[in-house]
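Quick check before the chapter quiz. The format below is the same one you will see on the exam, so make sure you can read both the input and the output lines.
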Amino acid sequence: MKFSKFLTTYEIGKSYPAPDGTYKGECVSLVKCYIKDVLGVTPQSIGDAKQYWLKRKEKYIKSLFKPLKKGAKLQKGDVAVRTSGVYGHIMIIQRVEKDGFITIEQNNGGCRKVTWQHYPLTMDFHYLRPLNQTNITNKPEVKQGDIVKLTNANCLYLRASKKDFFTVGDLSSFKCSAKAQLKKGTKVKADAVDTVKGNIWIKTKISGIDCYIIAYDKKKDKSYIKA
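Here is the expected output.
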């Protein structure tokens, strides 16, 4: 399950058990659903919320997550763990903002339901990053020879060179000799696929001329194609 679908499947105000049907409404139960649905792993029982950080060096947690160092840049899909209190608390980051981040979590403050919460970056939390990012990122799978359909209107860069597309930008930011706008739904063939600084570009031909379209913007985590 894609992370975006997870956010709509587990609805605000509703209460969910772990995948095995136990502990309805607990914070750990929602995280176990995340592990099963998004990370694709059958969750194990390791104890209360704080154990996800305290046992981070044990085999099960190490197979799922990488612990982040203090001050690391957070991203969507990261798991935040509070180790204070008797049981601690655990939540999933759904969006990072300038002044903090938004979580999806269960049993915040004793409310045994799903809520979305905002926290400042100064919170005394520990963070775990899933090793498997396949369902978290919107990065498309595309290879040479694929016919892809544009899911958004896309800028076409004619007679461009690699140095012209090191950074994703609008038409005005590029200096190549010809530019155009492709409509949503347009199909193109990927003659080559190139990744530059995490951004995926497709090389194709229009009227026999080599040109490039953006397939994935890493900074926005936005895909522009459907393979």
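If your answer matched, good. The chain has two domains: 3-130, 147-226.
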